């Protein structure tokens, strides 16, 4: 069966795996160069080495495999995603230049606020979910109309975009090391992270785990749901 390369999220989002450089063997051989050794086929001994490296936080061999993704997510999530900086390179669509119709993330359900947390939510849906999602949609439509009206008046896209909400989708290409994605997923799969970003982190897990099964298990298994 072919590996999955793209996973859709929300009403217009996705995570697409574009390219993968390396494998579990890349990690092993990065580590074995210390002893001027190299493996040509992955063995049980190599598995033991990867587990040892992960357990003892010898992370640099996990920097060598590289992954390129194309990701589309709402801006409020991209702001959180972009906080993960070390080991990542990103380029993003610019609404200074692009003036195509924006797309907005509309949740199917609005979750209740959790009074026990400073930030966060319960799993329960608010009583009048329909009223709330309709209000969100109306607000998006109004912003969109104003955006269009501003540009009809000759306002440049880089200023007209100021009225667009945080729920607007953005798109970027991201290249990062296996270690960087493992770190991001570890932090963003935590139950304290926002549900919507956990969904994106879970998509990354689904795409990367089959490419680096031993390394991913060693680095991340304890954090996954
Ligand atoms: C659940 C959750 C809630 C969050 N809430 C908030 C919030 O309310 N407000 C907010 O501002 N941020 C918040 N963050 C973001 C958080 O503070 C981190 O910026 C983010 O998780 C990225 O962490 P990182 O280790 O991947 O960072 P990276 O910048 O990718 O750094 C990777 C690692 O490199 C090292 N490093 C990087 N920079 C330095 C440095 N200057 N000095 C020394 N070592 C360095 C550290 O070991 C670091 O962990 C939140 C994150 C999570 C997961």
Element layout with pairings:
Blueprint: E1 6-9, E2 13-21, H1 24-32, H2 44-55, E3 66-74, H3 75-81, E4 88-92, E5 111-113, E6 121-125, H4 129-152, H5 157-160, E7 169-177, H6 178-188, H7 195-208, H8 213-220
Helix pairs in contact: 1-2, 2-8, 6-7
The chain binds flavin-adenine dinucleotide (FAD).
Please provide a written account of the structure.
The protein is an alpha+beta fold and 225 residues long. It has eight helices and seven strands. It has helices at residues 24-32, 44-55, 75-81, 129-152, 157-160, 178-188, 195-208, 213-220, and strands spanning 6-9, 13-21, 66-74, 88-92, 111-113, 121-125, 169-177. It has a five-stranded antiparallel beta sheet with strand order 1-2-3-7-4. It has a two-stranded antiparallel ribbon with strand order 5-6. Strand 1 and strand 2 (13-21) form a beta hairpin. Helix 1 packs across helix 2 (44-55), helix 2 packs parallel to helix 8 (213-220) and helix 6 packs antiparallel against helix 7 (195-208). Residues 83-86, 183-184, 187-188, 190, 192-193 line the site of flavin-adenine dinucleotide.
